[in-house]
Amino acid sequence: MRVLVTGASGTLAPFVIRALWERHEVVLLSRRPPPAERASLPWIQGDITVFDDCWHAVQGMGAMQHLAAQPWPVDYPQLREQAASIMDGDAFGSRHRRVARRSCVSSSLSPAA
Q: Which one is the CATH code of 2-105: 3.30.420.40, 3.90.380.10, 3.40.50.720, 2.160.20.10?
């Protein structure tokens, strides 16, 4: 199965990609090129906050492992507005729900106490 991994240059990506690539055809989606150890895998340069990048990336995929995240904390008042403006963007609008049939969300963040 072709599996799209978003946030492929992030902290969790090496572990998830290593677990997937033995049994699946893994395709990476990230704003930055993958590091040398994953350079042989197909890579799509894109941003999950841009609908067209997301739409292009999911074409032909059987599943998606969503690892992409906002690179700044949202629990600081001065950053909440910035995070809210991204979440209200077109990539997260009504069309976003139709992009993928299967998705699994992972996070390295702990819930706030």
A: 3.40.50.720
